[in-house]
Amino acid sequence: MKLIEKAFRRYDARSTATLISTGGVLPLPVIAVLAPDTLHPGGLAPLLVIWSFIATAFVITAFRERLSDGEFAVLGSFGIIGICGTSLILANPRPGIAVLALVAVIPAIAAMSPSMPLVISLLALAVTGATTVLAVTSMSVPAFMIGIGSMLGVITVPVFLVVALRRSLEATLHRQARLNGIDPLTGLFNRRGFLARVAQLLAAARVSTGWVGILLMDIDHFKQINDRHGHLAGDGVLLSVAAAIRETAPSGSVVSRFGGEEFLVFCVARDEEELHALAEQFRVAVAEANPVTLSVGGVCAPLVTSTRANALATDTVVSRLLDRADRCVYRAKESGRDRVDVVSMDPIVWRKPSDKSDALDPVMRSTPPDSLYQLFSRRPEDVVDYPRTLDD
Questions:
Q1: Among 9, 131, 162, 327, which is 20 to 30 Å from 44 by CA?
Q2: 261 is known as an active-site residue
């Protein structure tokens, strides 16, 4: 059992399916030798040629472990030709039709890949090969038409089902991953949702004003609300504060619930004075609409992109900004709460990700093919990392 599990871990789903399909026909020459009347006269030599290719495909797949699209296109094309050839050299037409139906396997395996040109090309080749074989072996035009209709269904339906299921799974995972970046109470981004968009936000700030601004807001005496009035009242305050912050936030900024009673606004700022004025707007808006106040800490800095070795990675940039903003919040609380404390920093030299996909939301990135073992051994909760708390 462990040996089988280890083997399944080595190969992705497409390569495993290729091994199973090619391995199943490896005993074919033995059957032909034991029962030579199953072949047309002179059919053993072509059968051995076809078998040699199938054995080669099996060995290549076994050693490669993960076939590229190009490799699978070559092996799949010759596989379809081999299946059609085997169907033609069988003496009995019934086994011949059964073997011909195997051409549906290769396009269906190809459909595990997101490469639609690969799927369509192998599907077209399978349909062409099946049509040719039926045209040669059918005894009448009606028999040919019936055979073609049946074979088209046998070939195309599995491909359609695999493509539909794969896209449905991708859409479900994409939707769930986005939900994982949303705070379920307030509807704002949570910490994970914010961090997933940091590179995009920094790039946007760099091409606009060249300055980046972060405001960290903490509700004053929030614990007392929970203690005196209960957590439902606390949730109501959080919803009301979140609404006020969302309505006040300038266009293009990103608002997130960053902790239990902390909110974060990432925005483009021209200088410290502009960020301070924006922080005051948030403080006043919340105080006017809620029975609570905010202590606001903010930091802004010029952003410079560079490829030099001393340039900071994205996570380091965020860490420095948040650390400074947190200290500003602390000073605001020390000064009596319901205060704003905003400072500016020296220019930040940011090393922009070289790969464009690094600046995208991670849920939009394509993932490498899973092994067959991973596909069937995962529990539903293993597919998506669900947030454990409201605070994330």
A1: 131
A2: yes
